[in-house]
Amino acid sequence: MTPIVEAKNLKKTFGAFTAVEDVSFHIVKGECFGLLGPNGAGKTTTIRMLYGYTPLTSGALKLFGEDLEPNLRKLKYRIGVCQQENNLDPDLTVLENLQVFARYFDIPKSEARTRIDRLLEFFALNNRSKALFTDLSGGMRRRLVLARSLINNPDLLILDEPTSALDPQTRQQVWSRLLELKKEGLTILLTTHYMEEAYRLCDRLLIMDQGKVLVEGKPGELIDRYVGREVLEIDSPDQKLRDFLISQGYMFDDLGTRLMIYNHNCRELFDAIEKVFDHKNCMLRMGTLEDVFLKLTGRDLRE
Amino acid sequence: MIKALFPKISRRFLRVWQRNLTVYKKTWKVSFLPPLMEPFLFIVAFGIGLSAIVEDLTYRGIKVSYIDFIIPALLGTTIMYNAFFETSFASFVRMRYQKTFDAMMATPLNLEEIITGEIAWSATKSFIAATLMIVGVGILGLIDNLSILLVPLLALLGGFAFGATGMFFTSIVPNIETFNLPMFLFITPMFLFSGTFFPLETLPQWAQGIALALPLTHLVRLTRAATLGIYHLSLLGSLAYLLLYSLFFYPLALKKMQKRLIK
Ligand SMILES: Nc1ncnc2c1ncn2[C@@H]1O[C@H](COP(=O)(O)OP(=O)(O)OP(=O)(O)O)[C@@H](O)[C@H]1O
Ligand SMILES: [Mg+2]
User: Fold this and answer.
1) Interface of B with A in 9-38 (CB under 8 A)
2) For A69-90, how does the pLDDT look when each residue is reduced to its tens digit (9 = 90+)?
3) Same domain, yes or no, for A261 and A132?
4) How far apart are CA B233 and CA B47, in angstroms?
5) Is residue A297 part of a domain?
6) Interface membership of A109 toward B (CB under 8 Å)
7) What residue ranges do the domains of chain B occupy?
8) Is B59 helix (H, G, I), strand (E, B) or coil?
9) Taking the model in full, what pTM does it have?
10) Residue B137 and residue B71 in contact, taking contact as beta carbons nearer than 8 Å
């Protein structure tokens, strides 16, 4: 089966600065693929190349088996994009925002109306159709951008941080909506800073940093590979405990006031520590995608 | 021919035009007032106030009252201001602050169509304003010649020319305040010195030469011919000038916009 997205060695430079380098991945039909990375990693730039907003510096890009550049117009009819910013029309109402967008895709008026009603319902905005964009809360705006990205019944949905600035309730609601769409067979490309979101929604994902791919794989496999099922966190460890860990041959990430122990039989260690030390500051928990992310991209703040 | 000159532009630019119309329709109750009211203001101030001290003029050998002399100037400057404002300040706000162009870029529209739609809309704004102003002039009973009805057509041409100019400036200004520069150095001098409120012939020879190089001079020549019903061959030159001017600034605006936005 031809992949929906086939990206080979994507590269993007802005002057002397390389924002994306040698990024390759593919997405098959019905899959949700995640693009993770710290601020400035190059996620948005990668996505922009995918819908023709930004031309590639080098590399090759195929959507639905066709080269992007020569077929851009045709292909854009099949893509829905939720950009990182809520670039809705402040002069227009919720309904008008969607109507105007439907026109860009040459959707006939009555057909547009049917789709809009369905989308407003789907994103729980149906009571707000006459509200001006400026009267909407941040979460409503985001949902409206999401609704707008679906107006052309896309075969590929591209979401740049779809749930940023949403409260937990709304985020959960958006997740379940996206899962519904996935169940219907929609192919989704997603960037996010919420590891839980990536874990729940993505079949496969890619973590990038400073424009380059660090790893790619299924969320569960990445957790197994990089941090293990269980993680032991030790808060403000004393020297005795450190010495003990070293003498026992345990490898740990030293965050100064906190030690993280990955890839070991942490339960055994937890019990051992409990016997000898005051274990109040010890926490045994499941390994998460967040652990993988932090382990691979480091804990330093990005500029 | 247009297709050959601008291969990337399809009729989809009308969708962008339509978007602006949709927004305009929401605010038309406010936006249609200024062009309708403006003739009243100007005609009271300049016409009635000034004509007490200004005598009738001779324009191309024909005696015209001062009011009749400035009505076409008001039409021409309105055409200029409406289009220029639309593709400078208003387009800049859409581009920079509302990210309207970004959103459009995720649809089948391309940048050339977006820019063309914006310029076409600015010409439409000029058309609407000129038409409303003609209504205002009509209400005042100041229509001399029915060929004033040609002015809305001239508004499309002049609007396109000044719309393309505004878009050119939008493609190069670093921020919205910088528009004050072309306003002060280009638009305002044109407003005053393009044979608008006094005949060009009263200017020294060198200044006349400069004025003849400016687009508003030619637009006002044309509107004046229409309102007074005075035709002469040099009007063809003015028409040609505005066409060539547009054919220069429109592709330039497209190219510069491309350079600014496609990174
Ligand atoms: N038009 C541009 N000109 C110059 N540099 C750019 C441009 N667009 C992006 N960059 C740079 O490219 C890098 C990647 O930016 P990008 O927006 O792709 O990051 P991101 O992964 O989406 O980050 P975030 O999580 O903050 O959204 C950044 O260093 C950014 O400053
Ligand atoms: Mg981003």
Assistant:
1) 12, 15, 18-19, 22-23, 26-27
2) 999 999 999 999 999 999 999 9
3) no
4) 29
5) no
6) no
7) 2-261
8) strand
9) 0.92
10) yes
Token readout for A125 is 């905005």
Residue B7 contacts A where some CB pair is shorter than 8 Å: no
**Predicted pLDDT at B1:** 55
The overall average pLDDT reported for chain A is 91
* Ligand 1 pocket, mutate which of A11, A13, A14, A47 (most atoms under 8 A from CB): A14
Q: Note whether A166 and A207 are same-domain residues.
A: yes
What pLDDT is recorded for position A301?
65
Same domain, residue pair A234 and A153: no
CATH of the domain at A47: 3.40.50.300
| Ramachandran quadrant class, B23 (left: phi over 0; alpha: psi -120 to 50; beta: rest) | alpha
Distance, CA of B258 to chain centre = 24
Residues A103 and A179 in one domain: yes
Structure tokens at A131: 């509200």
A182 and A256 inside one domain: no
pLDDT tens string A180-223: 999 999 999 999 999 999 999 999 999 999 999 999 999 999 99
Which chain B residues touch A96 with a CB distance below 8 Å? 22
For residue A239, the enclosing domain spans 230-286
- A-chain residues near B102 (CB < 8 A): 53, 83, 85, 87
In a domain, A89, yes or no: yes
CB contact under 8 A, B103 and A105: no
> What's the structural domain count of chain A?
2
Q: Do B23 and A92 touch (CB under 8 A)?
A: yes
Q: Are B221 and B152 in contact (CB under 8 A)?
A: no
Q: Is there a single domain that holds both residue A210 and residue A238? A: no
Q: Return the bridge partners of A32, or none.
A: A188
Question: Does pLDDT of A54 surpass 90?
Answer: yes
Asked if residue A69 belongs to a domain, the reply is yes
Of A14, A96, A104, the CB nearest to B22: A96
Please list every residue in chain B whose beta carbon sits closer than 8 Å to the beta carbon of residue A105.
107-108
Chain B nearest CA to A77, separation (Å):
6
Domain identity same for A126 and A196: yes
What gap in Å lies between CA B131 and CA B9, rounded to an integer?
Answer: 29
Instruction: Report the C-alpha gap between B205 and A159 in whole angstroms.
Output: 63
Instruction: Verify that A188 and A240 share a domain, yes or no.
Output: no
CA distance B196 to A180: 65
pLDDT (average), residues A105-120: 97
Whole-angstrom Cα Rg for chain B: 19
Buried b / exposed e across A121-139, counting CB within 10 Å, b at 16+?
A: ebbebeebeeebbeebeeb
Distance of CA B132 to the CA centre of its chain: 14
Note the pLDDT tens digit of each residue in B138-153: 988 888 888 999 999 9
Q: Which H helix or E strand runs over B63? A: strand B62-64
